[in-house]
Amino acid sequence: MSLTLPAMSDSRVASKGPYISVITNRTTNVVIRGAMLFAVGVFLALVLNLLQVQRNVTLFPPDVISSIFSSAWWVPPCCGTASAMIGLLYPCIDRQLGEPHNFKREWSSVMRCVAVFVGINHASAKVDFANNIQLSLTLAALSIGLWWTFDRSRSGFGLGVAIALLATMTTQLLVYNGLFQYTSPDFLYIRSWLPCIFFAGVITMGNIGRQLALYEYKLIQEKTHQD
After folding, report:
1. DSSP string, the chain
2. How far does CA 142 lie from the centroid of its chain?
3. Can you give the pTM of this predicted structure?
4. Is residue 24 within 8 Å of 219, Cβ to Cβ?
5. Residue 189 Cα to chain centre, angstroms
6. In a structure prediction context, what are the per-residue pLDDT tens digits for the chain, which is 227 residues long?
7. Of 82, 81, 90, nearest to 156 (Cα)?
8. How far apart are CA 181 and CA 188, in angstroms?
9. CB-hemisphere CA count at 13 Å for 18?
10. What contacts 88, CB < 8 A, 6 or more positions away?
């Protein structure tokens, strides 16, 4: 009897996860979460890049156009990989700091965060401002508002700023090497509002990653409590 009860308990706990109930291996769950984040990143990259290209915000050389979404072939995989890394990094940092992120932890909040992020991208491409400075300040306010509404963690803000700066420098190098270009660049080779878009994207993918990891975190907590 003492050997049977723990197995039944583990099965009961495992059934609460978002994945197949028999999968309780942590490495397997990380791979599943990474694959889901990669798919989300690829989808958002295709949709948002289509918007930017249609509004002539970004221009790709004709010889690298290779999809119906008017995007270079390497853009979606790169965005998917970055999304997976960000989505896995956020809950990992939360665990390292011993501060699990519990603010608005439900899928409805995550979906609203994604909608706001898409809206910020839409504004950067379609809303006409008097100058780039006004546009950049507006998008910066919207991006910080997104963080305040759906995150509010210091680790989330710090990671968002750091990754946004790194992504901005990487984009500068890509444009410098002629892989694509921005119309009317005002911040070296890019548009000055781009770091705001990156920051909002990092917060969004971080929220998705945290939500996916929430079930695994609860599973670990319950197993620890039972032990």
Report:
1. -TTHHHHHHHHHHHTTSSS-TT---HHHHHHHHHHHHHHHHHHHHHHHHHHHHHTTSEE--GGGB-STTS-BTTHHHHHHHHHHHHHHHHHHHHHHHT----TT-SHHHHHHHHHHHHHHHHHHHH---SSHHHHHHHHHHHHHHHHHHHT--HHHHHHHHHHHHHHHHHHHHHHHTTS-EESS--BTTB-TTHHHHHHHHHHHHHHHHHHHHHHHHHHHHHHHHH-
2. 16
3. 0.78
4. yes
5. 24
6. 444 434 434 444 444 445 544 455 778 888 999 999 999 999 998 888 777 665 555 555 554 444 444 456 778 899 999 999 999 999 999 888 877 777 777 889 999 999 999 999 888 777 777 777 888 899 999 999 999 999 999 999 999 999 999 999 999 998 888 877 777 778 788 888 899 999 999 999 999 999 998 876 666 665 556 65
7. 90
8. 11
9. 17
10. 30, 33, 34, 37, 209, 213
Give the pair of three-digit tokens for residue 193. Answer: 């509002």
Residue with tokens 């946004």: 164
